[in-house]
Amino acid sequence: QGQLVESGGGLVKPGGSLRLSCAASGFTFTDYYMSWIRQAPGKGLEWTSYISSSGNSMYYADSVKGRFTISRDNAKNSLYLEMNSLRAEDTAVYYCARRHISTRAFDIWGQGTTVTVSS
Amino acid sequence: VLTQSPATLSLSPGERATLSCRASQSVTSNYLVWYQQKPGQVPRLLIYGASSRATGIPDRFSGSGSGTDFTLTISRLEPEDFAVYYCQHYGNSLFTFGPGTKVDIK
Question: Which residues of B fall within a CB distance of 8 Å from A46?
Answer without folding.
Answer: 97
